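To: structure desk
From: M.T.
Subject: fold request, one chain
Message: Could you run this one when you get a chance? Sequence is below, nothing fancy, just the single chain.
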Amino acid sequence: MARSDQVRHQLFLPKEVSDRLEALARAPGTSKSRILTEALTAWLDRKGVDELELRFARRLDRLSNQLARIERDGHVQLESLALFIRYMLTVNAPLPEGDEAARALGRDRFAAFVQRVGQQLAGGRLTLRPEEAQ
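Reply: Done. Structure tokens follow.
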């Protein structure tokens, strides 16, 4: 660095730090100014990274919390569906093999169910959401 690019600073260091700086500066090709410049530059660079990390850490924490809620909701939905299916399979007797009228009624009910689910999702309405929120 040219002398005109440099600014003189006066600072006070604790005796122990000053002694360590003196010992490091005795090495060939180094100086107190170079050591302090490199140390201060490294500290300032790390400080900038820390501020950037802190800025994004809040956002990442919020996203992590949202993902955790979504995951929890998914588990609740799957468990509810599994319990409903188990209940329906244990309560309803199986249809006799030759009862085509009952099977046709079952197919019609299932088609109506699938259509209703499609309508709810297309309309952005959720059955489990409280009525005032819809």
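Reply (cont.): The chain is about 70% helix and 0% strand. Let me know if you need anything else for the meeting.
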